[in-house]
Design a protein that fits this description.
Radius of gyration: 17 Å
Order of helices and strands: EHEHEHEHEEHEHHEEH
CATH architecture: Alpha-Beta Complex
Shape: globular
CATH topology: Spore Coat Polysaccharide Biosynthesis Protein SpsA, Chain A
Strand content: 15-25%
Strand order of the largest sheet: 3-2-1-4-7-5-8
CATH class: Alpha Beta
Low-confidence stretches: none
Number of strands: 9
CATH superfamily: Spore Coat Polysaccharide Biosynthesis Protein SpsA, Chain A
Length: 241
């Protein structure tokens, strides 16, 4: 059995889904892909089903009944991946903001390097973001600065959603206690990994904003991240994380 699974949450990604699946499954390393679809009205899941016969045993679909947030989608995928004995578990967006060619870099950092969690980082070597307005670049960059100040983590891109976990990391975390769904979910997972003394490595990537489909960013997600970081730090201080 292949030991690498790439989890891709989707909601209304019909314009991207076939292309991203083909791009991931055409990599030199034979990754598997798990799509977590939140009952997309545009029939994203139907396209995945059509492709499953072509990629028999490499492409999997979990279809949920409603849109329930990025964090819960990944938790669902993590549990599925652990139940199916994958050793390296990836998070990746469906919109090509994460380059499938960088998957092997994340894998190498965990498999050949010392990392237990490798992060595709937009900021570890400067600002490597394409097609974002300056306001969003600044918001994202300073969000990570803020996270470093509050948590003490030496991570340049705390909100990154392009990562690889060794299974031991996810097995050590009580996934049922994960509370957040947006940016704060990404921060929470990294902070729980950091708190358990696992090794974290940042791999420089170039992040390119989506050209098809609509962003899922909202003000509520930003607010959750700002206050969620403080909550995580307080929980750590009282040993309840």
């Amino acid at each position: 059995m292949n030991n690498c699974i790439v989890i891709i949450p989707t909601y209304n990604e019909i314009e991207n889904i076939e292309s991203i699946i083909r791009a991931v499954l055409s990599q030199h390393k034979p990754f598997h892909v798990l799509i977590i679809d939140d009952n997309s009205p545009d029939h994203t899941a139907d396209k995945v089903v059509m492709l499953q016969s072509e990629y028999n045993g490499r492409l999997f679909l979990e279809k949920r009944t409603k849109k329930s947030g990025l964090g819960t989608a990944y938790v669902h995928g993590f549990k599925w991946a652990l139940q199916n004995n994958y050793d390296f578990i990836f998070e990746m967006d469906a919109d090509f903001s994460h380059n499938p060619n960088d998957l092997e870099k994340l894998y190498d950092a965990c498999h050949f390097g010392d990392a237990d969690l490798s992060i595709g980082s937009r900021y570890v070597t400067g600002v490597n973001v394409v097609n974002w307005p300056l306001s969003r670049v600044l918001m994202s960059y300073f969000a990570s600065v803020y996270v470093r100040m509050i948590t003490g983590m030496k991570i340049h891109d705390a909100t990154a959603g392009f990562v690889c976990y060794k299974k031991e990391v996810l097995e050590s975390i009580n996934l049922d206690k994960i509370k957040f769904v947006g940016y704060a979910f990404q921060i929470e997972m990294k902070y729980r990994t950091y708190s358990k003394k696992f090794a974290i490595s940042e791999v420089p990537i170039i992040f390119t904003d989506r050209t098809k489909g609509q962003s899922k960013m909202s003000n509520s997600i930003i607010v959750e991240a700002v206050f969620g970081v403080i909550m995580l730090r307080l929980k750590k201080l009282v040993n309840s994380l």
